[in-house]
Amino acid sequence: MLIGNLFADTVLLTIKIGSWVWAVTESQIIYLIIAAIVGLVAEFIVGWRLPFGFVGAILAAILGIWLLTHVILISIPGDPVIYGVPLFKALLGAIILVALWHMITYRSWGHRRRYYRRA
Predict the structure, then answer these.
(1) Whole-angstrom distance, CA of residue 92 vs CA of residue 64
(2) Quick check: 30 and 2 in contact, CB under 8 A?
(3) Is the four-CA dihedral 14, 11, 71, 104 of positive or negative sign?
(4) What are the helix (H) ranges across the chain?
(5) Biggest distance spanned by C-alpha atoms of the chain
(6) Pairing verdict, β 81-82 and 85-86
């Protein structure tokens, strides 16, 4: 039995608001941890930070994982998979998104004035 299948149904937290019920599972927490690591590595490789810091890196990684696993189907032989997340595909998707963000917003950041003067 795989560890991912063993912990897939373990509910850590249940939130109930009115008729809405949300359950946070251990696999979701691990997915977010993997996305955080992949997002920060993608920012480091590209050399550009996303807005909202750590949360922006997680969002870029989650979007990159979705992009390269459901929209653009790429097969990478030997891609390690942890809890259903292919790591190289996730990293490649996050790098693409961070690089696109850099290309779109670089001109607006390149010509900003300084807020202070050096003495």
Answers:
(1) 7
(2) no
(3) positive
(4) 3-7, 26-46, 53-66, 87-110
(5) 65
(6) antiparallel
**Long-range pairs, 98-104, Cβ under 8 A, ≥24:** 98/42, 98/43, 98/45, 98/46, 98/48, 98/50, 98/60, 99/46, 99/48, 101/48, 101/50, 101/60, 102/46, 102/48
| Cα–Cα–Cα angle for 78, 84, 90, rounded to 5 degrees | 65
Return the residue matching tokens 């290309």: 103
* pTM (predicted TM-score): 0.69
Q: Which residues of the chain have pLDDT under 70?
A: 1-9, 107-119
